[in-house]
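Human
Can I borrow your eye for a moment on a structure tokenisation matter? Give me a protein, with the fold worked out from its sequence. Write it directly below this note and I will take it from there.

Assistant
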Amino acid sequence: MSKIALLHGPNLNRLGEREPSIYGHLTLPDIIHCLQAAALKQGFTLLDYQSNHEGDLIDHLWTWKDEGVQGIIINPGGLSHTSVALRDALLGIQLPAIEVHIANVHARESFRHTLITAGACKSVISGLGLRGYTVALEALLERLTQQK
């Protein structure tokens, strides 16, 4: 079965309890379960990983590349504004990636307006909550099935 992957950065393991007025009440397991079910219906296995550590995220991208993952949905969290290394890994793996942010980063503090990692992705979805993940999944699966 074809594989895609969902990568979550720092603090996203606290979804549902961390600033629910911004991020909502859904937990990371809720999001993963929803996306895994949707991916499976399209004949894809969805792998997932979350870490609060930049190097772990980078290592997972390269491992997934070596394991034949075909595309990535990534929410780098705060690393999207700071991590050149994560951007370089996204460019290096040469897999289609879609960046997702639950909140609208442009409606928040000005330092959140620059997304360093976004330039290494095919597209960015920001401010749609869980719907952003499902839109990203639909777009990624459409891209991958058209390549077959």
In short: The radius of gyration is 14 Å. The mean pLDDT is 92.
